[in-house]
Amino acid sequence: MRLWSVHPRYLDRQALTACWREGLLAQAVLRGATRGYTRHPQLERFRAQPAPLHAVGAYLAGVADEAEARGYRFDRGRILYLPEDPVVLMLETGQLDYEWEHLMRKLQVRSPETARCWAGIIRPDPHPLFILVEGPVASWERP
Fold this sequence. Notes:
With 143 residues, the chain is mainly alpha-helical. The chain has one domain (8-133). The protein is 46% helix and 6% strand. Strands 1-2 form a two-stranded parallel ribbon. Helix 1 packs antiparallel against helix 3 and helix 4 runs antiparallel to helix 5 (112-118). The radius of gyration is 15 Å and the shape is globular. It holds the Pfam family Pyr_excise. GO terms for molecular function: lyase activity. InterPro entries: Pyr-dimer_DNA_glycosylase. This is DNA lyase. Keywords: Lyase.
């Protein structure tokens, strides 16, 4: 499971659709609707929120917004918990930088044209759910 912290605009088609599916899986896990992935480290940042399901709902909405901008049709009806008020999570610069390097390595192999498009970016924008703060790679990350 990879719930990217980078803005979904940087994801190629494969990563965007995988992020949507994995976000839906995260929603199911947080609802207690599945027995798998219950201890997945990437869910720690959502579980730490006062309303974890609303946080993952906001995350999914950001992914769906990008899909819609590209002309894809992700079923927003599958987002079960949309917050009424904006949800913001802190994202440390080290985590964003780590994920950016990880994504660029994947893109160079799978989607070289997309990798070339983003090659000049040193630090990408984060997913709209996140506010960037100085800090290291997240403790839950498994490099």
